[in-house]
User: What shape does this take?
Amino acid sequence: MTEQAELSALLTETRRFPPPAAFAAQANAQPGIYERAHEDPRAFWAEQAARLTWAKPWDQVLDWQPPFAKWFVGGRLNVAVNCVDRHVEAGNGERVAYHWIGEPEGDTRDITYAQLKAMVGQATNALIELGVRKGDRVAIYMPMIPETVVAMLACARLGAPHTVVFGGFSADALRSRIIDCDAHIVITADGGYRRGTATALKPAVDAAIANLPEVQTVLVVRRTGQDIAWDEARDHWWHEVVERQSEDHTAEAHDSEHPLYVMYTSGTTAKPKGILHTTGGYLTHVSATHQLVFDLKPEQDVFWTAADIGWVTGHSYIVYGPLANGATSVLYEGTPDAGGRDRWWRIISELKVSILYTAPTTIRTFMKWGEDLPAGHDLSSLRLLGSVGEPINPEAWMWYRKHIGGDRCQIVDTWWQTETGGIMITPLPGITATKPGSAMTPFPGVGAEVLDNEGKPVDNGGAGFLVLTEPWPGMLRGIWGDPERYRQTYWSRFDGLYFAGDGAKRDADGDLWLLGRVDDVMNISGHRISTTEVESALVSHPAVAEAAVVGANDAITGQGIVAFVTVKGSVAQDADSGVALIAELREHVATQIGKIARPRQILLTPDLPKTRSGKIMRRLLRDVAEHRELGDVTTLADPTVVNMIDEKMRTAEDEEA
Ligand code: PRX
Assistant: This one.
C-alpha cells in the first residue's frame, strides 16, 4: 500500500470493538472518569496520588512555572516503601512479586513481596557500606534478573538516582552515560544469557571505566559464572557484600521532587539526553496508568511486560507501576525465540498470565512465525493485551486480538515516551470502543492536541504535530545537567506546549492515530535511535568522509537503518575491499553505540545529495532506501548525484538477491 492509501484506510477504519459488558462491569475504569478528570485534572491526579502512602501529605498539587513543574509540593514519600514494604505490612508478604524466568529452561525463581523486602533491605545496607549516599548517581548495567530490580529499589530507597543502561549498549555508550551523570559506582553482572549463550557484561564495564578514576566501586552479580577480570581494590561480589547485610533498613521519606532516576534516550543530536524523573509525580502516574489501563487486579492477575528493564517501558511497567500496585509480574530474561519460538506461549499457559504488554515489532515477528505456535498452547488466561513503542498497523492489531487474545481480549495501544514517564494516549479497557491501529484518546487528566505548521489545531480528518497541552505528574523534570536544552528541545516549537516529536492524525471521530517521528529520530523495533548518533559513529571511522543515515520502512522492525557513506580519497575502493569495509563499518557502529544501532544496509557512494547550501537531503535518501519515485530534486546542487545513488542501490540489492 502507498503511504497515501494507508492514511486514507486509517480514516475509513470502520471496525469497532466495544468492551464486553461483563468486562465493563468489573473494570477499574468506570464511566464518568473522563468527565471528572476533565473538569478538574489536578483533583483527578491528587486522587490518584492518594492511592500511594505518603509520610507527609503534599501542600500543593502542582506548582507550574512553564515549562518547569513541581508535583505534590511539600509531600514526602519513599518509592521503595510504596513498592514493597507497604504490601508486606498490609499482609500480602506471601504474594509473588515476580515469577522470574531465566533464559535457560528450568532456571526460575519466584520472589514474594516479603523476600523482595528483605533483598532490598540488604542491598540498601550494602550500598551504604560501599559509600553511596542520598543524591549520588548509581549506574546499573545488568541482564534481566531479580537483582536488577533489587538494585533499582535500593537506590530509590536511599534516594540515590539510578541510571540503568540497557545491556545491549556498548562499552562506549555506557562510558558516556557514566560520565554525563557522574556516577561513581556501577552495578553489573559477570554476564547474561542471550539465545542460549552466555554474553559478557563485566568486560564492557571494565572497558567503560578504564581511566575513569571517579568510578571507585563496581558491584558484580554472579549470573553465568564465566571467568572475568577482577580488580581487588574496586570490584565487589554481590553475593559477598549484599548477602551478609541486615535485611532491615529504616527508610527516609524523600521530597516528592527528589530525583528518582535518569534514563538516557536518543534525540536529534549525537549526544543522548539524560531524562530526569522524580519521585511523587512519577510514581503517581505509573501507578495510576498501570491500574486503569491494564485493569490490574492485584489478587488475581499475572501481569507481563515483555520488555527490557533497560528501557523506560521496563522502568515504568515492570518495576515501579506494577510494584506500587502490589501486582504479580513475570520477569523474563530471554528473547522470544530462546528455547523455541513458542517460549512465550508456554510461559503464559504455565503461569496463567492474564495481561501481556509488548511491542508491535514482536507481534509482527510472531505473525511471521505463524499462528500455529500460539494455537498449540492454552492462552485462555489472557484477558487484556497491550502494545507500545511504535505505531501498530491494523493487521498486526487484528492478528494480536485474534491469535493471542482469542477474539476475547481487550487491546490497548498505548502511546508515550521516555520523557512522559508513563502512558499518555490509550484506550481505557471497559470504557473505550477500540479501533485497530488507533491509540484513541488521551488518558484522563492528560491534554493532547494535533497542530498544523502554524500551531492551529487540525480538524477531524487532519494530520499534524502531536503536542501535550497540560503538565502531567510523570513528566520529565529536565535533561540532566542541561536545563536550557530541555526548554529548547521540547517547549520551543509551539509556545508553551510540549512537542513530542511525533506526527499524528485525528480521524473523523476525533480519535488519534500516531504516525511516527517527524524529526531525525528513528524507531527500530521500538527502540529510539537518532540518525545523527549513527552518522557521527560512522564518521568517527578513519575511512569515512561523510555519512547520511535514514530510517527506511521495514516490515518487521518498523524501520531499519540505512546508511549512505562516502569514503576518504585515500581508501582503496575495489569490490572486495568495499564488502570488507561495509562489514567493518557495521561493527564499528555496534562498538560505538550498540548492536541495536548496527545499520541494516550501508551503501558506499562517491557523493551525497546536497542542497546548494550544502545540506544533505535525507528525504531523497529515504526515497532511495524505500524504493520510491524520487521526490522533488530541483533544490539539489547536483541532481545527478541522487540518480546515481538510486542506481547504485538497485544494483547493490540485485547483487545481494
Ligand atoms: O514515536 C513514538 C514511539 O516511540 C517514541 C518514544 O520512544 P521511547 O522514549 O523509547 O519510549 C518507548 C516506550 C514508551 C514516541 O515518540 N511510540 C511509543 N509508543 C507508541 C509510539 N508510536 C506509536 N504508537 C505507540 N503506541
In short: The mean pLDDT is 95.
